[in-house]
Design a protein that fits this description.
The structure is a single chain. Helices cover 60% and strands 6% of the residues. It has 126 residues and is mostly helical. Strands 1-2 form a two-stranded antiparallel ribbon. Strand 1 and strand 2 form a beta hairpin. The longest helix has 25 residues. The two termini are 16 Å apart.
């Protein structure tokens, strides 16, 4: 599991951690039933407080993405993620529609827009 903490982000650390774990679950990189690192181990790896990682895990558990088994740890839940993926796809489509409309208004060609998206995509991967 890879998590990147951005110290200069406006987003709190626990929200960055929870958001990245959630994204990995939705993308299928973390599978149902898969064990997550312990709260202490993750805190040590990320060099954050145990309270920060506990809050991230608690939020994910409250949203139904994780389950905690006493004495065993935290696991990705068996939750049906398809409705959430569909909602995200609709949201993405709305954003892309707005971007396409703005590009047309600004006179940006399709190829230029495509290149912008490619650059943004690659920056996020780095």
């Amino acid at each position: 599991m890879e998590i990147i903490i951005r110290g200069r982000s406006d987003q709190p650390l626990y929200a960055q951690i929870a958001g990245q774990i959630k994204a990995q679950i939705l993308a299928g990189k973390l599978c149902p039933g898969e064990a997550l690192p312990s709260i202490r181990a993750l805190a040590k790896d990320l060099r954050v407080s145990v309270i920060t990682t506990k809050r991230a895990y608690d939020e994910l558990e409250a949203e139904g993405f994780l389950v905690t088994a006493a004495g065993r740890g935290c696991f990705v839940s068996e939750k049906d993620l398809e409705p959430l993926r569909e909602d995200q796809a609709k949201e993405l489509e709305a954003h892309l529609s707005a971007a396409a409309a703005l590009a047309r208004t600004c006179g940006v060609r399709y190829e230029e827009l495509q290149e912008m998206l490619r650059i943004l995509w690659e920056e996020e991967q780095a």
